[in-house]
Input
Amino acid sequence: MTDELELRLDSLAGVGPVTTRKLNDAGVHTIMDLIVRGPVEVAELTGMDIDSAGKLVEKAREGLVAGGLIAKDFVSASELYKKRQSIGKITTGTECLDTLFDGGVETQALTEVYGEFGCGKTQFCHTMAVQVQKSKEEGGLEGGVLYMDSENTFRPERIVSIAKANGMDPEKALDNIIVARAYNSSHQQLILEEASRMITENNIKLIVSDSAVGLFRSEYLGRGTLATRQQKLNRFVHLLVRLAETYNIASIMTNQVMSSPDQFFGDPTKPIGGNVVAHTSTYRIYFKKSGKKRVARMVDSPHHPEQEVIFGLGEEGVIDHETDTKKKKATKSIPKASETDTPAETPETASDVLDSELIDSE
Output
């Protein structure tokens, strides 16, 4: 099953030319895509009944299991533990955020970052779009990026500055990023449905959706449309997760926030999307502003502790906070004075330097 020919839809029993054409038109090109979409969506696309679609997807799953492309139904916890050791992680380029993520952003998982405007969500996405292209020794995955931009906030100039700051070729960094501008929620869903072929053809290792919920929020207004919005949003975020798990890539989505009016104590900021998004996201991180500093807090994770770290924004994208960096440099540069040492000379002030310059000139 590792051969591309064996992943073709017509290699499955019961899939003829008509069904293949219907699936291809809907963005389902391989057996792997059948697993991603699931029986309900396959039934909608092909017009077959749900039982037949379920059997078709089950055949696809059995073939992928036999080929070792997906996990078996039942595995021991020790096997699962060994398998998770091979999960890829993308470094953020900072010590603080790598500590928060326990080494970096994981593949086979959906990482949600939410916060108010200006807190660094888009800067984080731009940074990760560059970091994922680094070699595995440097903390990357040597892969490309599919960047879904729904708010017109993607800036290639920012990619160039981040790439230069990391000692990378800016042109190559730009070539490895495929940008898809989404104009409405249906278009956003369509882009994701067509992503499977893009992933395999361009060695995509990271999918970014910035922002995932914004278009749904703007199109479905009022309580009367809430159920419809949540159903479509649920379908979108689940597809993000299934793509990450099936193709062993990382998925990052940014989310908007609202202020809860009934919150009298504590932070009233709440992420959009309700329980649909909350239950689907593997990792949920809250970004907030604090002057020039930025605070990142791990809100929800299967195994990470709930903790906060401080980071900043700079030419390299997200960076370690300046105060922490200065402290580390000061610790390394200032030697420890013992009791027998002569007192260290006091550093020159700006006025001392000015006086010495005047004397030299005279």
About this structure: The CA atoms of residues 10 and 147 lie 31 Å apart. The two ends are 84 Å apart (CA to CA). The longest strand covers residues 283-290. The longest helix spans residues 226-247.
